[in-house]
Amino acid sequence: MKDVTNIDEVISPEDLALALQAIASSPGRRVAPIELSGRRLWIKRFDVEPLAFAKRLHWLVSPVLYPPFLRGSAPALGEAGVERECNRIAAFRGAGFRTPSIIYRNGAMLVLSDVSPVLTDGLAAASEPHRQALLLKLFAALGQMHSAGLVHGRPHLRDMSLYNGEICFFDFEEAPETTMPLADAQARDLWLVLLPVVALERDETKCRALLRVWLDTAPVEAVMALSRFVGFVRPLLVPARLLPKALQGGDLERFLGAARFLVGANSDMDSAIAASGQRTASQQVES
User: Fold this and answer.
1) Are residues 102 and 154 in the same domain?
2) Quick one: DSSP state of residue 116?
3) 5 in a structural domain
4) pTM over cut 0.85
5) Is residue 29 packed enough to be buried (19+ CB in 10 Å), middle (13-18) or exposed (0-12)?
6) Which one of 23, 66, 124, 272 is least enclosed by Cβ atoms within 10 Å?
7) Cis peptide leading into 117, omega within 30 of 0?
8) Is the N-terminal amide bond of 67 cis, ω within 30° of 0?
9) CB atoms within 10 A of CB 46
10) Cα–Cα distance measured from residue 84 to residue 243, given in angstroms and rounded to the nearest whole number
């Protein structure tokens, strides 16, 4: 593929030579920072780290999984991974959302601008009121992003940051909307964010305030998809209570915590769906 630079930032030939030298000196590293001309950039490669067996297996069985919410997207490796990431960045930037800038791309390699600190670090360092304010900003941005018809795909807290006062999205390595309806993919975004947030907050009142911020903005189709998923997981919570804590593990504990929270907040989803129906009916009458 021909070398491409982003119109917002241009890398000098000298800095490019240093970046390529850094890549050559660490052939096994998928993501690595580099300091060039007094600023930090990130080198990201899509031709290292073979896809984990568990992820490959998940993708292979995805077509038969139900509900669609549980399916995974096809892996994008090499140049296909670069193409997916660049297309997502372009779509998000085109809709007015902040992303890293593409400084340079060639084949299976990208050089991106730095947008630190990631939300994981920002939340860990924040006081309780500031943490809640940051989370409110995050859930509002998620709702706005979904309202714009976009989906992140893998919105872990380490794949987003607060940059110049705005939520910044990056690491677009999954495309769940290719294996499930867009609404389910957007609901899946919300679910993946809730997993660590519910475990972090442990305060149902505060978590419901965060959910309502998303519900106020997200498309009603995504809210309905989330409600359907809650209906699917609700019966699983009964036998899960019989499983000793020592056998649950961190991932299962977060899953159950987020599922219990959503079951308890089901009335909020019902209210959001009803309010959307009333707005639609009112608009039809006016037209």
Assistant:
1) no
2) P
3) no
4) yes
5) middle
6) 66
7) yes
8) yes
9) 22
10) 40
* Three-state secondary structure call for residue 37: coil
Q: Do 41 and 100 belong together in one domain?
A: yes
For residue 57, being part of any structural domain is answered with no
Other C-beta atoms closer than 10 Å to the C-beta of 31 total 13
Domain final residue pick, 94, 113, 132: 113
274 and 182 fall within a common domain: yes
Predicted local distance difference test score (pLDDT) of residue 2: 37
How far apart are alpha carbons 136 and 40 in whole angstroms? 28
> Bridge-partner residues for 110, per DSSP?
44, 105
Provide the residue range defining the domain that includes 162: 119-286
- In this structure, the answer to whether residues 210 and 235 fall within a common structural domain is yes
Number of domains in the chain: 2
Asked whether residue 143 falls in the same domain as residue 29, the answer is: no
Task: For residue 40, give the CATH number of its domain.
Answer: 3.30.200.20
CB atoms within 10 A of CB 88: 22
pLDDT along the chain (287 residues), means of 10: 47 79 74 86 84 71 79 84 94 96 90 92 91 96 98 94 94 91 96 95 93 97 95 85 66 89 95 85 60
231, 238, 237: which is closest to 255 by C-alpha? 237
Q: Is residue 60 part of a domain?
A: no
Contact of 225 with 181, CB cutoff 8 Å: yes
Give the chain's length. 287
pLDDT at residue 67, as a whole number? 79
The reply to whether 4 falls in a domain is no
Q: Where are the beta strands (DSSP E) in the chain?
A: 31-36, 39-45, 102-106, 109-113, 160-163, 166-169
Nearest residue to 209 via CA among 132, 101, 100: 132
| CA 49/CA 280 separation, integer angstroms | 48
User: Are the C-beta atoms of 96 and 22 separated by less than 8 Å?
Assistant: no
* 98 and 171 belong to one structural domain: no
